[in-house]
Amino acid sequence: MNRVFSGIQPTGTLHLGNYLGAVANWVALQENTSIDRIYCVVDYHAITADYDPKDLMKRSVNLARDLLACGLDPEKSALFVQSQIPEHTELAWIFQACTSYGELQRMTQFKSKGDTQSFVSAGLFTYPVLQAADILLYDANMVPVGEDQVQHLELTRGIARRFNTLYGECFPDVKPLLTEAPRIMSLKNPEQKMSKSSGEGHFLALDAPENETAKMIKRAVTDTGPAEDGEMSPGVANLFTILKALGATEAHTSLMADYEGGSLRY
Ligand code: AMP
Ligand code: TRP
Question: Is 79 within 8 Å of 66 (Cβ atoms)?
């Protein structure tokens, strides 16, 4: 039996990158009756970054609500909060003894998050080990995530193999399930991925009013005219990716034809 597991941190409002890279896939997988689905609000991961303890629980509940609004159906998928199942952290400790320090040092998410935080905790460093425990605790073999999580899943595979070698065959090989838009870029700086932590103007919140979303799309960084080398700029490419991923196929086709014909500028 195939089993899907994925998690999301209660670190603020859902944005379009979360949706197109991960949550849309969580919902789509519900149509496949031959797989089990388990989805988790990973609050213990969220405490590795600067946060306010007073509102963490509220943020977890709000995120669960937003996931239901995106189409997660509790009749079809399990949805729960990580800290309510103590075995996640218990397995994470055992896995820490199967994880090499050097491997954790190579995690790009640790390097980029560590550079932006005033307090870099040991938890931020061992964060991917807890992620491996989340997945393998349920023997899940498929993990729908955005592209930024692929490296963590490689680490998960390594941990499972090392555990299996030491203690006997126990955990499956996991593989990432990516959408057609696995990396949505920031609207303000299309060289970096869309993320809540980059601040206003960078991300499209799913709960923003329509006029605000329209304003943000209009302000998105595109280009300063046709590129000399004929390459589409990252900002323009990102808007085309978003348009297509949201199902606006006709608009995508006609705007792409305009772009290629040189009549769609800036
Ligand atoms: P997070 O908010 O970091 O817990 O991310 C939740 C899920 O959204 C993960 O599967 C991420 O890989 C995915 N995700 C986050 N940002 C993006 C993005 N800009 N493009 C595509 N997927 C993303
Ligand atoms: N690390 C993931 C992120 O930043 C969140 C996460 C935690 C996760 N545990 C997981 C994703 C297990 C998939 C499976 O987005």
Answer: no
Nearest ligand to residue 38 Cα = 2
> Counting every residue, how long is the chain?
266
Q: What is the pLDDT of residues 176-195, one digit of tens each?
A: 999 999 999 999 999 999 99
Instruction: Name residue 193's beta-bridge partners.
Output: 185
DSSP 211-249: HHHHHHHHHS---SSS-TT-PPPHHHHHHHHHHHHTT-H
Q: Could you give the CA distance from residue 101 to residue 103 in angstroms, rounded to a whole number? A: 5
Average pLDDT over residues 112-136: 95
State both tokens at 53.
């303890």
User: Pairing between strand 35-41 and 142-144?
Assistant: unpaired
Query: Among the atoms of ligand 2, which is closest to the Cα of residue 8?
Result: 5
Closest by CA position to 72, among listed 23, 35, 33, 32? 23
Residue 11: φ, ψ to 5°: -110, 25
| Contact yes or no for 242/213 (Cβ under 8 A) | no
134 lines ligand 2 (CB under 6 A): yes
- Averaged pLDDT of the chain: 95
According to DSSP, the β-strands at 35-41 and 2-8 are: parallel
Is residue 50 classed as helix, strand or coil in its secondary structure?
A: coil
Residues noted as catalytic = 113, 193, 196
What's the predicted TM-score (pTM) here? 0.96
pLDDT at res. 226:
67
Give the model's pLDDT for residue 54.
Answer: 94
Mean pLDDT of 166-181: 97
Q: Is 186 in the pocket of ligand 1 (CB under 6 A)?
A: no
Q: Three-state SS across 177-220?
A: ECCCCCCCECCCCCCCECCHHHCCCCCCECCCCHHHHHHHHHHC
Nearest to 2 by CA among 181, 213, 210, 143: 143
